[in-house]
Amino acid sequence: MPTNSVFGNVERKTLQKKALAQIEELPSLSDVVREFLALTSRDYFTAADFETVIRKDSALTARLLKVANSSFYAGTRSIKTIRESVVLIGMDNMKNMVYAVSSSGLLSHKFKSYKFPDRGYWMHSMGVAIACRALAREAKTKVLGPEEAFVAGLLHDVGKLILDKILINEEGVREISLEEEAETAGLDHADLARHIFRKWKIPEILIEAVRFHHNPYVGGRAKAGAVLINLANNILKEWGLGTKNVPDLTIEIESSDHIQDIRALTIPREKFTSILWELRQDLMEIDKLYQAQREEVEE
Ligand SMILES: [Fe+2]
Ligand SMILES: [Fe+2]
After folding, report:
1. What is the distance between the alpha carbons of residues 78 and 64, in angstroms, rounded to a whole number?
2. What phi, psi does 278 have (nearest 5°)?
3. Helix (H) or strand (E) segment spanning residue 234
4. Helix (H), strand (E) at residue 13
5. In the chain, which end has fewer C-beta atoms inside a 10 angstrom radius, N or C?
6. How many structural domains does the chain have?
7. 259: containing domain
8. How far is the CA of 225 from the centre of ligand 1 (A)?
9. CATH number for the domain harbouring residue 146
10. Domain annotation covers residue 176
11. Ligand nearest to the CA of 214
């Protein structure tokens, strides 16, 4: 880790500027994704509404149909429209597919500095997103809607994609702490996410959730959106999904270990246990999505 003597303020400022300039290089979220988030955040919408928004982006539509028609979903049956895919694959699975496919440029980043197992960033981001959605559906403290929570979870570590290029050194991939990020580049990955989200015109409420995801009780008051991401992050870490070479979803998660977060979100304790059971099923599904998407990319 660099020391202050050789790595002073001037270097830090230079790296910080470099990091902020790099935001332009990130593949941005398309307008369709923002519109899609607005649609799916509504109390009621139909498969036809879903199709109308997606079809505004013909490249995305074509890619989604390819994934939906992969051997992992359609099998031998042929799916011709987005509406048909929603009906056959299920609304939540289709929503996951839209986000995975439309942000594949971000999620498939090959890390040079941060240590992630093979396809770890993809699994971690999608896993935290799905866990955030599941927790937000049951939380009585309402800050983010389930779909907003999903997007916040999906993009919570996006700052690492930029710092990955800034913090590079000869040691190769390694664990990098928030402190090291801030010490070296003058801002950590959560701070950086704030700048990225502003550039992408992501709603302010998501920005706050992501900015404080490692620090959700700053100033003694819980920031519920950030608590949501923090809790999802910690659950996934216990199971090792995206962080260990061999994740283990059978590991029992004790609600008592997360009681502060559960209380801040007002999730009944017995509900928490049932969320975890459903979450395990949903997380097993994303493996299929990963494979199907890879098939689409490789074709
Ligand atoms: Fe993080
Ligand atoms: Fe994370």
Report:
1. 13
2. -65, -35
3. helix 224-239
4. helix 9-22
5. C
6. 1
7. 106-294
8. 14
9. 1.10.3210.10
10. yes
11. 1
Q: Which ligand is nearest to the CA of 213?
A: 1
The closest ligand to the CA of 176 turns out to be: 1
**What is the residue-level pLDDT of the chain in tens, covering all 299 positions?**
444 545 688 889 999 999 999 999 998 888 899 999 999 999 999 999 999 999 999 999 999 999 999 989 987 789 999 999 999 999 999 999 999 999 999 999 999 999 999 899 999 999 999 999 999 999 999 989 999 999 999 999 999 999 999 988 777 888 999 999 999 999 999 999 999 999 999 999 999 999 999 999 988 888 999 999 999 999 999 999 999 999 999 999 999 999 999 999 999 989 999 999 999 999 998 999 999 998 887 76
Place of tokens 């994934």: 67
Examine residue 90 and state whether it is found in any structural domain, yes or no. no
Give the pTM.
0.94
In a domain, 221, yes or no: yes
Note whether residue 94 is domain-resident. Answer: no
Residue type, 217: Y
C-alpha 66 – ligand 1 centre gap (Å): 32
For the CA of 128, the nearest ligand: 2
Rounded-to-integer distance, Cα 173 and Cα 175, Å: 7
